[in-house]
Design goal:
The structure is a single chain. About 5% of the residues have low confidence. Helix content is about 25%, strand content about 25%. The protein contains 17 helices and 37 strands. It is α+β, with helices and mostly antiparallel strands. Strand 5, helix 7 and strand 6 form a beta-alpha-beta unit. It is elongated, with a radius of gyration of 50 Å. The longest helix is centred in the N-terminal third of the chain and has 33 residues. Strands 5, 6, 7, 8, 9, 10, 11 and 19 form an 8-stranded mixed beta sheet that branches. Strands 12, 13, 14, 15, 16, 17 and 18 form a 7-stranded mixed beta sheet that branches.
Length: about 750
């Protein structure tokens, strides 16, 4: 620092003196500032960038990791040593305790404590499951405590309710203990219903052996199995009552469903039993008092899996019972809108309930709607099954984008009453262009008999089909058109006549042509020129032509303007006591598939094929349900060959032509002018050559006409021959009619036996 001015200071306070003072002060300040800067530089050189509060290392070392400060560094080190010694001691103690815990009360030692705990947990779960399996969560009810004690004197797991007091009892320490009023306090509004709904399938059981049946007698009788339950019978025997009668050794799973958890004696319960062989059976409980109908086997496809666990089964969240019209709300008046995963029983059902199967609007039943999720929204996958109280069952699935329900399909059941169209040898259809296979294209109509639905029925069943239908025909024109009734009268009689007329009557002649049932007279010659009268003439002509034939009637496949003609067709069928089916009972004709596949108002080829299946199934099902309609079918066709028909016609061939049997059968003269059917067996003892033939021949004054023969190359054996002919009118009533066997160019032995001749229909 510069030297200060001292001795040189003036004693006066003049301007110079003041200047010197100022200079001195400035020098002092600069000296102090210079020393401070020098000291700070030395500190920085030694400590670098360490923060001032951290620059005392010893002070910082007195604070431990938890922020606790000690007075001295030694104090902290002493405390750390003491803690470490304590932890080491505790670790030694813990190690001994863990080793001891690895051994259970049965002196079994596990490698690790975790393994022992896992084993205990498994044992506990098994014990709990075993106990729960013995407990039914549906209370069993008794009239009073005495009845309960009488049935279970040694107790039983579960909850039991006595009706006289409403109290629940449980078995505790060897006695029945009163546990208070059963559900004395109701749940809050809405909660009880939700709990009920979410627990629809309340019971599951597994019958592994015969002794399991003794735990609860309800499982010895399918009629008594708890509702809304799933029971698997790994063991099943004859002591289990009311199971399907096909077997009492093949086990299976029984699913019992209804709209309520405690239905009492009411109807609506549906049972499905899945045999372990793959067979599936179903039945419904109905009536007053309600009883189970007979089991029916379902044969058109079984479920690949039945519900595998209670989780899946508990997806039935909604149940509903419709007992009267006022029970219907907007949800239950349309099957499309019924909630997913629900069981709804319709004791009342009417035409206002939309999208139900179209077979009936009066027969109630139980609708089960199932899907993979409880909130399906508009997605596909929902499946509905509707079981009528008549025992019929229908199913459909919701699919596509956007998802919509397919048409209902009736579940075909394996029924010993089934009747097929192959019962009939010949069929004739009285109809219009829809029976002729007419197709509309480019403003024109083309007739294709080979794609008509009657032709396809004939091809499938080997039935001979006579085409007596014509496009555009009315019942009035049918009487005189050479391709219609005149052709029918000249043709060979048929076993079955199917009548479908009325489309053109409605379109061309209108309702003024209808008439009334009174237009049909005892003598059809006097019938009025109306729809009723002319249709009656057609039916009377068929009855005269083929008195033992079956006549089957349908209305038209269209409603609207045809409604009055459809009603008239049903009245006519009733008048003549003929089988009748309405097109409204066949879903195909109300489907978009039918409506969308018409060209110029006529079906295209694939639609005709579908119609052939629908018509065939409808006729077959009718005969299945009404077998007495066929009681007289083929009933009166007696054998026209005399009683010696049991005697064989035997010939030993020499290789020449026209070798005849010495024995001859007398034949009734009733065959003249009639269609006759002849059946017989031919037995040959050696091979027939290409030029050989064997046959049956009429003789004795009548044209010798071999109308039935076995011809060409045949090996040694027995051959059945069946033929049908229209025999000419009698030319001489004085000579008897006989038949004989004839052979040509055959060297072996021939036997013609079992000869039967009958009038055809």
């Amino acid at each position: 620092m510069d030297r200060l001015k001292t001795n040189e200071l003036s004693l006066g306070l003049d301007q110079g003196f003041r200047g010197d003072l100022i200079d001195n002060f400035e020098k002092i300040q600069k000296g102090v500032d210079g020393q401070s800067d020098s000291l700070n530089k030395q500190i920085l050189d030694m400590l670098g960038n360490v923060a001032p509060q951290d620059q005392n290392e010893v002070t910082q070392a007195r604070i431990d990791g938890n922020g606790k400060a000690y007075d001295t560094l030694k104090g902290r080190e002493d405390a750390t040593q003491a803690t470490a010694e304590t932890a080491l001691s505790e670790e030694r103690d813990t190690s001994v305790e863990v080793q001891a815990a690895r051994t259970n009360s049965s002196s079994q030692t596990y490698p690790t404590l975790k393994e022992r705990m896992d084993s205990q947990e498994n044992d506990l779960n098994n014990n709990i499951n075993s106990k729960l399996a013995q407990i039914s969560v549906i209370p069993e009810t008794f009239a009073n405590l005495g009845a309960l004690q009488s049935k279970y004197p040694t107790g039983k797991p579960g909850i039991f309710v006595v009706a006289d007091t409403g109290h629940k009892y449980i078995w505790v320490n060897g006695t029945w203990v009163d546990s208070g009023v059963y559900q004395a306090v109701g749940l809050a509004d809405g909660i009880e219903e939700d709990v009920e709904n979410h627990n629809k399938f309340l019971t599951t059981n597994f019958i592994a052996k015969a002794s399991d049946l003794d735990l609860d007698s309800n499982y010895k009788d399918f009629d008594l199995v708890p509702v809304n339950s799933v029971v698997t019978y790994a063991y099943i025997g004859a002591e289990v009552l009311h199971q399907p009668g096909d077997s009492n050794t093949d086990g299976g799973t029984l699913i019992t469903r209804t709209y309520a958890n405690l239905p009492g004696d009411g109807g609506g319960t549906v049972q499905t039993f899945f045999r372990n062989t793959g067979k599936v059976f179903a039945r419904i409980k109905w009536g007053s008092p309600a009883t189970f109908k007979s089991w029916a086997e379902i044969t058109n496809g079984n479920l690949d899996e039945i519900n595998k666990n209670v989780d899946v089964i508990n997806k039935f969240l909604t149940r509903k019972f419709i007992s009267k019209a006022t029970d219907l709300d907007s949800t239950y008046t349309d099957f499309d809108l019924v909630p997913a995963n629900s069981v709804v029983t319709y004791a009342y059902i009417g035409s206002e309930v939309l999208n139900q199967p179209s077979d009936s609007t009066t027969d109630g039943g139980t609708l089960v709607t199932q899907t993979y999720t409880n909130s399906p929204g508009k997605g596909g996958g929902s499946v509905q099954t509707f079981t009528r109280n008549t025992g019929k069952s229908f199913t459909r699935i919701k699919w596509g984008n956007p998802a919509t329900y397919n048409q209902w399909t009736e579940i075909t059941k394996n029924d010993y009453r089934e009747t097929t169209m192959s019962l009939f040898e010949t069929i004739s259809v009285v109809g219009d262009s829809f029976a002729r296979g007419t197709i509309g294209n480019n403003g024109k109509y083309y007739t294709n008999d080979d794609i008509s639905w009657p032709t396809m029925i004939g091809r499938r069943n080997g039935i001979k089909y006579l085409n007596i239908a014509k496009g555009g025909i009315t019942t009035r024109d049918y009487l005189t058109d050479p391709d219609c009734l005149p052709k029918l009268n000249l043709s060979e009689p048929s076993d079955l006549y199917v009548l479908i007329l009325g489309i053109n009557d409605a379109g061309k002649l209108g309702t003024s042509y209808l008439g009334t049932i009174d237009d049909i007279k005892t003598d059809s010659v006097h019938n009025a020129d109306t729809f009723y009268g002319n249709y009656g003439k057609i039916i009377s002509s068929i009855k005269t032509k083929s008195p033992n034939a079956i006549i089957f009637m349908f209305d038209t496949p269209f409603g609207s303007v045809n409604d009055s003609f459809n009603a008239a067709a049903k009245n006519i069928a009733n008048h003549f006591s003929l089988p009748f089916i309405s097109h409204s009972s066949m879903p195909l004709f109300s489907s978009s598939y039918f409506k969308d596949n018409l060209s110029l108002g006529h079906p295209i080829a694939p639609l005709y094929a579908a119609m052939s299946v629908v018509y065939e199934n409808a006729i077959s099902r009718y005969f299945q349900s009404n077998p007495l309609v066929l009681k007289q079918f083929k009933f009166s066709s007696d054998n026209l060959v005399n009683t010696t028909s049991g005697t064989a016609l035997t010939l030993s061939g020499t290789g020449i032509s026209n070798e005849v049997s010495s024995m001859q059968y007398d034949v009734s003269r009733d065959i003249f002018g009639k269609v006759v059917k002849i059946d017989y067996d031919v037995i040959i003892d050696s091979e027939m050559k290409d030029s050989s033939d064997i046959g049956i021949q009429f003789f004795n004054g009548y044209p010798e006409w071999t109308f039935s023969k076995l011809a060409g190359k045949h090996f040694r054996g027995v051959y059945h021959v069946s033929d049908k002919i229209l025999y000419p009118m009698d030319t001489s009533t004085t000579k008897p009619l006989k038949i004989r066997a004839v052979i040509n160019n055959f060297l072996g032995k021939v036997t013609v036996t079992n000869v039967v001749m009958k009038r055809a229909m």
